[in-house]
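Batch job 17 of 40 flagged for manual review because the log was empty.
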Amino acid sequence: MDEYTTIRAYASDEFVERRSRFIGYLQPVTSEEQAVAFINAKKAEHWDATHNVYAYILREGQTRRYSDDGEPQGTAGIPVLEVLQREGLTDLVAVVTRYFGGVLLGAGGLVRAYSHAAKLAVDAAERMTMSECTELALAFGYDWYGKLLHILPQFEAQVLSSDFGAQVQLRLLLRDSQLHPFEKALTELTAAQVTAQAVDKRFACIEG
């Protein structure tokens, strides 16, 4: 997987279905511990709710978990999980809190309600694409600075830091797909006098 889609930050939305209140929450997470902590926090916040249903998807270990939290089997957790999967999202946890309003919804009604609450939360969230990236370190004379800065936008290179001492030292972040074209352009521009050293690899969001 060279890229995946997640959400940028916490999001929520809610609606009422036949007097039952459904509140959908989404939170970006990168580990099972973070997912469980968020679920427990929502359970504590809504201790008086009828149900706190959850689902989460993690890139780490291709993990998928869900819970109906007392609703009839297959009517709550799986529908929430399926919304996250259908939307192509990963590294996030969803909690749907229900306050029962006194009117039974039936199995089909519950599936629709929990799916709708999850989709409302997804629609309220800002998505972002995480790409495999490489952090590069460059050191060069001041005469190259302007020329190098000029070509960076071509490769959507993100400047992480710059230090102006005896030499200019730059830290850049590039998508792996742009790495070889950038290194080729750097070699041609500087006649191989400036080289880039890979110092780290990670997933990151680079705005195109």
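Reviewer: the log was empty due to a logging misconfiguration, but the result itself is present. The longest helix spans residues 106-124. Unflagging and moving on to job 18.
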